[in-house]
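Q&A FORM
Asked by: J.P.
Topic: structure of Protein-export protein SecB

PROVIDED:
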Amino acid sequence: MAEDQAAGAGQQQANKQQFGIRKVYVRDMSFEVPNAPAIFSGEWKPEVSVDLDTRNTRIAENTYETVVRVTVTAKQGDKTAYLCEVEQGGIFVLSGFDDKTLDALLGSYCPAQIFPYAREAVSDMVTKGGFPQMVLAPVNFEALHMQRVRKQQEQQQGNGAQGDQGDQGSGGQAGN
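REPLIED BY: S.T.
REPLY: Here is the structure written out as tokens.
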């Protein structure tokens, strides 16, 4: 009987959890070809760099905006061939999750849901800009989130140690 009650409590908790995607949208996008038309002459051997960032904002109770920002820069020698920037947004409803699970959902799962839209936008803009197709590789947002969490923990630990030393040091300076 106690097992049935425990199973029922677990079932109720699971029923209270809610995850939903309200909207996926382009928040901002731009494409620049600063050296056109000269950049189109010659052999195409670009150096491509990709910068990726995510951010989350609580916009209402249990409602969050997740934004994935992708910046792709292609250089041909010392000249910029193109600069492509996309901010892909999503509005998510998340309720009934503990803080750790909520952080993981916002840090990895939500960005993973909207990244394919950003990847498609980059590919379309680059192709329409007259360049060979740019297909961004899949991203492991869970690994990126874990890396970010570790870095924050290290910084907090470092700040705690520095804060103690800093207080002692400034106290000593104040006495001089």
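FOLLOW-UP: The helical segments are 2-16, 99-128, 141-175.
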